[in-house]
Amino acid sequence: MFERLQSVMRNKDRLERERKKRRKAEVQEMQSDSLFRARLTADLKTVSLLLMDKDIASVVVTAEDASLDRLDAAMYDSEMAEYEVVKDGRSYEIRNKTVDF
Prior knowledge:
It is rod-shaped and about 80 Å long. The chain is α+β, with helices and mostly antiparallel strands and 101 residues long. A hairpin with a 2-residue loop joins strand 2 and strand 3 (91-96). The termini are far apart. Helices cover 57% and strands 16% of the residues.
């Protein structure tokens, strides 16, 4: 009976460690995503200022491998809705959307 109790306690400890590890990874992912979105917002303000110049038709941005997935998701999200974005490998060409009537 004592052996069974020891086994249950070990498994409980193992499960608790796994839960804590998983939760810590989730929190780190949320923090990383928040930092990415904040940096993206700041960078898009700079792109917007550049695109206000009549001589600049588009801005080409090269992304790091670590942020490609997040940038791909942001391309179709509200942050970049006002821009026309064309992806070519690791490069993104950003220009103002044109509206034809």
